[in-house]
Write a structure and sequence with these properties.
By secondary structure, the chain is mainly alpha-helical. It has twelve helices and two strands, in the order βααβαααααααααα. It has two domains: 144 residues, no CATH class; 159 residues, no CATH class. Helices cover 79% and strands 1% of the residues. The chain is globular, with a radius of gyration of 20 Å. The relative contact order is 0.09.
């Protein structure tokens, strides 16, 4: 007999972690910008900002997307660990060993609850790839915390770079599950369909290009990072070509998912150029990936999967168009902040980013009640 109450099984991880991710993005980014501009000293470093966006926000979205069929007590424990990690950031006097163990506990428990079932039940290499990627976030968090504990001088930097590449890998593979399916469905209106062989080919080659990029970043083999980045950029172009983005530009679901992948391509290309032309290009590339690509795809996919799991008609709600408009305003002003200067672009970027995720939070509250 199925359990009841807090011990019963649920498929509602997205109901908890999508709103948590949205609120985290809505509050933390303005806090960071206020701290960065010196308007209020919150004791936040650039490493704190990067860590929270990778291992806090992005990992919460992935939890909501991938975690299914988990006991409520485990889901509550997972959420408590995630929330405790976010709160611990503002208590720097806590023992570093305690906070490090707290931070590492979340991806470990997530791997047990989500990655293990993925290993067991995956019916294709594409679905199977999610399991090691998700598990590897534990490695990235551990590397970062080794730096925090002064065990490895380069730990924080390597952990963040590793985490960023894992986000690229997860977004790239999510394209195989979500973007390809939506694109194929849209092409049926033209009595056409995607060629599965071409999709699998470029998806597989892109996965290995990402692996080369990651190994190059971890080993300081710049030529390998450049080769991997250029190869991945080419694979992204080929995926976009096969998705027939111009032909499907009038389909709003396809349009915004494709725009997310265009941002990912530009971010990867800028990062790769940075290995040759200098750090400013790397910074531009990182923010293009984390704000533009990740933001566009997470908002679109979170709206879509919420509609799917609530069994309501899948469509682009007007609220999502406002979210995406605000997000892209944040992208443009963030890039201006890097190239022109922080004022007034920093506050504009933070405010528009925050409003986009506040809007998603309220949209989700409304749609669940309707």
């Amino acid at each position: 007999m199925a359990g009841t109450g807090i011990f019963q099984k649920t498929r509602q991880a997205y109901r908890l972690f999508y709103p948590l991710a949205a609120l985290h993005a809505a509050f933390f980014v303005p806090f960071w910008i206020i701290n960065y501009l010196g308007l209020l000293d919150l004791g936040l470093s650039a490493q704190d900002h990067a860590h929270e966006m990778i291992f806090g926000f992005a990992l919460a979205v992935m939890t909501g997307f991938l975690l299914n069929g988990v006991k409520k007590i485990n889901l509550v424990l997972l959420a408590m660990l995630w929330i405790a990690g976010r709160v611990a950031l503002f208590f720097p006097d806590l023992p570093v060993l305690l906070t490090s163990c707290l931070y590492i506990s979340f991806p470990i428990l997530l791997a047990i609850l989500a990655a293990v079932p993925l290993f067991k039940n995956a019916k294709s290499w594409r679905n199977l790839a999610f399991a090691p990627i998700l598990t590897a976030f534990t490695i990235g968090e551990t590397l970062f915390q080794l730096g925090r504990m002064d065990i490895w001088d380069s730990g924080e930097e390597r952990g963040l770079i590793f985490g960023l590449n894992l986000i690229c890998a997860m977004v790239y593979m999510m394209g195989g599950r979500v973007v390809t399916a939506v694109t194929n469905g849209a092409m049926q209106a033209f009595d056409d369909h995607l060629k599965p062989g071409a999709q699998s080919y470029w998806e597989e080659k892109g996965f290995f290009a990402l692996l080369a990029l990651t190994l190059g970043d971890l080993s300081d083999l710049i030529f390998l990072s450049i080769a991997g980045g250029l190869a991945l950029s080419f694979c992204l172009i080929m995926r976009l070509y096969h998705w027939q983005i111009l032909r499907l530009r009038h389909n709003l679901q396809c349009l915004w998912l494709h725009i997310g992948f265009i941002w990912l391509f530009l971010g990867i290309l800028l990062r790769t150029m940075g290995y040759i032309l200098g750090t400013p290009y790397i910074i531009l590339g990182i923010h293009t990936i984390t704000i533009a690509a990740l933001g566009t795809l997470t908002l679109t996919i979170m709206c879509r999967t919420t509609q799917q799991r609530l069994r309501i008609k899948i469509h682009i709600p007007p609220a999502l168009l406002w979210m995406l408009a605000l997000l892209n305003l944040s992208v443009v002003t963030r890039l201006l902040m890097e190239t022109v200067g922080p004022s007034p672009w920093a506050l504009t970027s933070a405010a528009s980013y925050s409003l986009a995720y506040f809007l998603f939070f309220f949209w989700m509250v409304i749609v669940k009640r309707s």
